[in-house]
Specification:
38% of the residues lie in helices and 21% in strands. The protein is α/β, with parallel strands linked by helices. Strands 1, 2, 3, 4, 5, 6, 7, 8 and 9 form a nine-stranded mixed beta sheet that branches. The longest helix has 22 residues, at 146-167.
């Protein structure tokens, strides 16, 4: 990455850094580099038994792993979907998608974080998720487009709801409340309880899992 074009969203080796708004300007190069990374991953059929892990770094060393570090206010869902498409292709090849929220994971960034491989979703103890719809992704530039834009927006929002229902333990009522207020923040501890993450990294360097937290 050259000094002339510094971007807070970028790919380095097998790691993705999402430290800016997720949109065309910040993610065009990232998505291209991510596509190349995923293309070069060789299929690996071995599965990891996450039940015996003592940290999210206890993995089969031969299994390909993509780290996603997140501190982003979110952005456009279409670019979030593009990122997730390539991450899911990598997952289909046996790769582990390990997500780490170092600060905030809001909106589209929250959805990327929760879609990491189960057992490998990490949050720093002061990190948080902001669950909401965010800004509209569709612009109306001509008469007659408003109805179509509203229909597309409705489908997009339903997709967001479905993602939280699939990957977390948030109830329909909780999701509806989050989407209504637009400012619902979940702490790392709350995320652990709601299956939005699997581990909390403390300031002493210890990893707390959902199982150890319940003991």
């Amino acid at each position: 990455m050259s000094d002339k074009n510094i971007n807070a969203n970028y790919v380095k080796q097998n790691s993705i850094f999402l430290y800016d708004t997720i949109n065309q300007e910040t993610c065009a190069e990232l998505i291209g580099n991510l596509a190349e990374m995923v293309y070069n991953i060789k299929s690996h059929p071995t599965k990891n038994d996450t039940k015996t892990n003592t940290s999210p770094y206890d993995i089969n060393k031969s299994a390909p792993t993509i780290d996603v570090f997140i501190n982003s206010g979110g952005g456009q869902c279409s670019y979030m979907d593009s990122i997730m498409t390539f991450l899911n292709i990598a997952r289909s090849k046996g790769a582990i998608i390990r997500t780490t929220v170092t600060g905030r994971a809001a909106s589209a960034a929250s959805q990327i974080a929760i879609q990491g491989t189960p057992g490998f979703r990490i949050m720093y103890q002061t990190a948080f998720h902001l669950v909401h719809y965010g800004n509209s992704s569709f612009n109306v530039s001509a008469n007659g487009e408003a109805e179509r834009a509203m229909k597309n927006e409705k489908q997009l929002r339903q997709n967001q709801v479905n993602t939280y229902k699939k990957f977390t333990k948030l109830t329909d009522k909780e999701i509806a409340e989050c989407m209504k207020t637009e400012h619902h923040v979940f702490s790392a501890q709350q995320c652990l309880e709601k299956n939005m993450c699997d581990w909390i990294l403390t300031d002493t360097g210890l990893y707390i899992s959902r199982e150890s937290n319940q003991r």
